[in-house]
Amino acid sequence: MTRPLKAVFAGVLALLTLKPAYDAIVCEAGFAGVAAAIELRRLGLSVLLVEPRTAAGWEATRALHLDWTAGDSAVTGDFARRAQTMGGLKKGRLDAPICEFVLDDMLADAGVDLLLMSRVVGLAVSGGVVRAVRIASKSGEVPVSARLVVDASRAGAVAALAGATPAPPASTQSTFTVMLNRVQDNASAPPSLAGHNVAVRPSVWPGEAAVEFRAATQDLARARQAVPKALAALRRASAAFKDAVVTNMSLETWPLAWPSLPAQSLPVRNLFIAGPAACGQPGQTLAAFMDHGAAVAAQAAQAAPSLPPAPAAPANTSLDQAPLREADVVVAGGGTAGPYAAIAAARRGARVVLLEQGACLGGMGTAGGIHVYYHGVPGGLQDEVDRLTQQIHPAFAAAPFAHDRIFHPDARKVVLEKLALEAGVTIVYGATLVRVLTEDLPSRLPATAAARPAVRATGVVAATPAGLEAWRCKVVIDSTGDGDAAALAGAEFTFGRETDGLPHAYSLSAGMMSDQRGLFGLNFDAGFCDPTDVVDMTRARRRGLAHLRRDAFTPENRYLYIAPLLGLRNARQIVGDYRLTFADQIEGRQFADVIAYAYSHYDNHALDYENESDASAFWVWALGLWRRPIGCEIPYRCLLPRNVEGMLVACRAISITQDAHHQLRMQRDMQRLGEAAGVAAALSSRLGFSPRQLDVRLVQAELIASGALGKPEPKQLPAPTQAAQLVHETAWKPLAPLQRPVPELVAALEGPDARDAVWRLAQAGQAAAPALAEALKSDNPDKRYWAAVALAGLDSDAGAGTLLEALRGRHDGVEAARHKSVPRWQAAIPLLGRLRCRQAVADLCALLADSSTPLDVLIAATRALGRIGDPAAAGAIEAMTARPDLPAQRFLQISAGVVKPLPEDCRWQIDVAAADALLKLNVLRPALLERHLHDDRLLVRRCAQKVLDAIRLRSTA
């Protein structure tokens, strides 16, 4: 039986850092909403500002409406002063990135609680008063109590939830803005185009112009699709734009008329209208919006004493059923994989709905600012997209990019959207998946306590600008990136690494331009966050934003844009019918149900391999093989979430281990997965099978026909090195032969292939142990060392003495010069811990007392002592945690661009490692963890709590 659309508030635990009740909740952080929230805080009220986008000030930061006139309110004057100081307000024009910095600073200074990527979708009304609002996000749906509610939304969406009916706008026209750089000074729209509603507006910066195209519609997709022809016409008509480059485009249209919603028409007395629906008549400015927001806030605060206080426990909000629509396939997520899935399915006759939380398609390659292929295999639908992107490139940039792996992000947005619309895909922007509809299935297995119920996904519910909307469908494709749909359906998943639960680092890109590099993006690791929790996502974005911020910007250091999408590399890994492993990738394994290929290297941004898996530390720290190309075939079974029917996972959340994720996460990998999932979904829908029942040979035949399967031609290879090309040319086999005799591998320990030989010997099983033990007697110190490392990989302690010798002698070895590898003595530490070598305890304890010991060696030694389990180490571990001179800062990775590395406070990692090691030694020290339970980073709190729970469990045993 299909479960009803009513659902529990699954996100309550995810949003514990929000208060359960506020004096005021402001809905949407446009200029009016920001001003209202700040004014309410100034008047002493607690305020939650809820914004569905990833940044405040959508009018300037997303619609690129950048006109500014003076306002009357204090908050408006404050904004103008700050923007001018930063260099982002000149001659009545604003700079969009600086607007984002200024608005975020103002909210932070005022103490407003900001929640991004979230939308108000329901109200609890009692006695003509709103008692709570229901907030929907990818974390679920939560009620939050409120005394006052301010609707600052674009079209009065919250007032509509209360029963108000906005009057339609007098006109449906809008403007769509394109920012161009390298424009000749004093450029203007040629007369032939000016008569066609094209205006060229000045910019804060020299050489930049804002070209505004007037559209007959406010529909974003239709306006965007008209841009290439309009740009081409502009270039032909005016020499001033001959060498210009498009550096940013609107993510929302700017309406030339707004819906009307008079305040007196509201059916509840504590709901106030501050958005454009109340003040956004033609000619209204951003300053007028801010003035109105501040005035409404003052009015609301004046009314507050006559209103009942917000309930301490949130009242249940309206759970009206969303209107149910029909589709064959619903693709949740229009990022890197989703558009390819939608296009592939629709071209094969399926009725497809594509739900995208943002305002464009393409994910990291477009909204994420990473408009370059790093690694991955071409072929299939992605080749068509690349070709069409290059075809319209001249409209966006006069000169081609320096490398064919680079593409123009705005051109890519247009192409993906065009192909989807032409295929008949229904695209819903601003749509966040909040529920998956399922029905129970009878299990074919005997019931056990560990058995998970089998379900079939039958549809989805999403929070959209129009409210909650639902679709019943035959197949759901999860392209959310984080496995949101599969998790909502009850699929099993893992998250992060085993030691501390950290996923891959996230980034925040920003666009810049130089004469030497042209258009490029900054790409730096900004820390770690939980992409399944919008509170932590909000914190993460604001932290990345703070690192990009400067007190003042110049034409040389300013940003063209700040990517609206966080660079999230890793979160959930869904457990499917097969879990691809790191060993599969190293061995270049092939599968009968292959649907895609992947190749890259072990692109893990970690610097603390003592906290990674044994295999990861072995591969990178000990062997220095971080850059070695690896790859394999991807089996169809990785797309099938265990115990969930009617669903395919086509994103970085597919069924792979945490280690395997670091190789299989590139844009081309995801695009291939999207096409394969779209083909499978269309076939399943048409033939009446679930994706799991489908004969994979049918999928393979379609992918061979499209060019997505099959050996790529050499001219298609994107690989930057000859070594990487060999991965293609040998059908995904590794560079060295899979099978080599053990004596041959042992002999290689003295040569340049020693690292490959060590890995293979460590996988060879105990049959290799005698030959390795004999190699320990060699006169060659390299051979002895590598034999000891290989034995450690076999969990044999025969070579522990050699590893201990390397530790005591502080042996370096040439592998220390390889990227991310470490000196041999440091690599020996986790290996000695793995072998539980008690002879190493005194040496490891000495490291803990040495003030020159680096952070990662301290943690590695602590974890090794915990694994060895000698109680004599407890005193040294405790003394180490009491040291006042502990190094506790690590600088994160810079991937592209000139930006300072961001420092990360890592004291919590020392304390977690120490508390965990002491627990293994039967010494309980909860205080080491309790001080981290209020860290603003969710993952830190969660890790500390996990070890603390284990300590408390031991104390009561």
Describe, in plain words, how this protein is organized in 3D:
The protein is of the alpha/beta class. It folds into four domains: 13-169 and 259-306, FAD/NAD(P)-binding domain (3-Layer(bba) Sandwich), CATH 3.50.50.60; 174-255; 324-498 and 574-729, FAD/NAD(P)-binding domain; 738-835, no CATH class. It is built from 33 helices and 35 strands. Strands 1, 2, 5, 6, 7, 8 and 14 form a seven-stranded mixed beta sheet that branches. Strands 9, 10, 11, 12 and 13 form a five-stranded antiparallel beta sheet that branches. Strands 15, 19, 20, 21 and 31 form a five-stranded mixed beta sheet that branches. α3 (74-86) packs across α4 (96-110) and α11 packs parallel to α19. The longest helix has 21 residues, at 667-687. It is globular, with a radius of gyration of 29 Å.
